[in-house]
TrEMBL record:
Gene3D superfamilies per the UniProt record, alphabetical: Oxidoreductase, molybdopterin-binding domain (3.90.420.10)
Classification lineage: Archaea, Methanobacteriati, Methanobacteriota, Stenosarchaea group, Halobacteria
Official protein name in the record: Oxidoreductase molybdopterin binding domain-containing protein
Residue intervals of the Oxidoreductase molybdopterin-binding domain: 215-352
Pfam families: Oxidored_molyb (PF00174)
Length: 361
């Protein structure tokens, strides 16, 4: 037998019963959306398994969509089968293919932009709309799996086989990227691609959602340190001499990273000057736009509030006059245009919402 048809036989031997195919697609799509979103909070290499799980589970969708299409193709191609819900099915299919194509394209290093969206951001968009689409699509033809769909051994083997298939596709893809030396081989474990050089011009200006304040005049600006402190402080720009430096990696969820040397003041020095109380537990950094993020106080002490990058004054776009440098955190946590430091006894769950809506008037 030719190896090609043997592979095809193996793939069809792994096909779950039709109802399970539909529910497996939903399970994979939900897993992808959740693992994708959680991956946005991961910035240190111990988190790599989540990215691998996302890639491998994502690639199994190729098999599942193949099984599904082989079964329902005639309902799309033969107009006597068209129903009002057919349009929804087609849109769902397009979103699934879009999520797969953009994910795979990104991994190969395709670096096109749609307006100011990177291909990775487009991928996230497809992934997020896919969840409600698949749910709606399933409810138009709601069929729960029955006992007959499950065979204790066979079902387990099939799903293990599908995951192995996803892992194999992932290996093959990594191999191809290396042989063809695509730009994708340069990705960090988070999927981000490097931006090299030093200083303001070396990396892009990025807003997470809608933040876009007017440029800040450092003479009219001050930094206040308040909350759970004995001596609240207000410091002018001239009182913040860039006495500390650190090298830190900024990794944005839109898919790029850069390593820069940042100059500024150590947050620990500010907390000591303001005499943070003993039971203070978090430090919150607040932007002129309201955008904010908190760090546990021990971590915050080591963080930097930077006035300079690569010895240049921070440009407005990069958060001048002052921005947070939070090593080991994803870019969206590096608050720009900081004007307030709140020392607090509790964390700040609302920050997750505030970072999404700040900047909308
Ligand atoms: C729900 C549908 C989704 C599907 C089917 C999907 C599938 C995929 C696939 C197939 C890849 C490429 C894996 C490879 O070729 O090795 C990928 C990469 C990626 N996805 Fe998704 N994804 C989905 C949603 C999301 C969401 C919602 C996010 C983030 C919020 C996300 C974040 C990422 C990231 C960061 C990568 C790049 C990883 C790398 O460069 O290695 N995905 N995804
Ligand atoms: N106030 C504020 N700070 C912010 C953002 C924002 O939208 N508003 N974007 C964040 C995101 S998503 C990233 S990746 C970094 C980008 O920093 P840069 O524009 O200097 O590259 O800033 C972070 N700090
Ligand atoms: Mo970002």
């Amino acid at each position: 037998m030719r190896p090609q048809s043997r592979a095809r036989d193996l793939v069809s031997a792994l096909r779950p019963p039709p109802r399970l195919v539909d529910w497996s697609i939903l399970a994979v799509v939900v897993f992808e959306a959740v693992s994708g979103l959680v991956s946005f909070t991961i910035a240190t290499p111990e988190g790599w398994p989540l990215f691998w799980a996302h890639r491998i589970a994502g690639l199994t969708l190729i098999f599942l969509l193949g099984y599904k299409l082989a079964r329902v193709r005639h309902r799309l191609t033969d107009s006597t089968h068209w129903r009002p819900t057919t349009a929804l099915s087609v849109v769902t299919l397009l979103a699934a293919v879009g999520a797969l194509a953009t994910g795979i394209g990104w991994v190969a290093g395709v670096d096109v932009r749609l307006a100011y969206w990177t291909l990775l951001s487009v991928h996230v968009g497809f992934g997020l709309v896919l969840v409600p689409l698949v749910v709606a699509h399933l409810t138009t033809r709601f069929r729960l799996p029955t006992r007959r769909d499950f065979h204790r051994r066979r079902t387990t083997i099939k799903y293990a086989g599908l995951l192995a298939g996803g892992a194999l596709l992932f290996r093959a893809q990594t191999f191809l990227n290396e042989v063809l030396d695509t730009p994708g081989t340069d990705r960090r474990f988070t999927g981000s691609q490097p931006r090299s050089g030093d200083g303001n011009e070396a990396f892009p200006v990025t807003s997470w959602v809608a933040d876009d304040p007017e440029p800040i005049d450092p003479e009219a600006w001050s930094l206040s340190i308040r909350g759970a402190v004995e001596t609240p402080l207000s410091l002018s720009y001239d009182q913040l001499s860039p006495e500390s430096e650190c090298e830190a990696l900024l990794d944005c969820t839109s898919g790029w990273y850069t390593v820069q040397r940042w100059q500024g003041v150590r947050v620990g020095a500010l907390l000591d000057a303001a005499a943070a109380v003993d039971d203070a537990a978090y430090v919150r950094f607040v932007s002129v736009t309201g955008y904010r993020w908190s760090l546990p106080i021990e971590e915050a002490r080591e963080a930097l509030l930077a006035t300079h990058v690569g010895e240049e004054r921070l440009s407005h776009g990069h958060g001048g006059p002052l921005r947070l440098i939070a090593p080991g955190r994803r870019g969206f946590q590096w608050v720009k245009w900081v004007e307030r430091v709140d020392v607090r006894r509790r964390g700040d769950p609302a920050q997750w919402i505030v970072t999404l809506v700040s900047g909308f008037d």
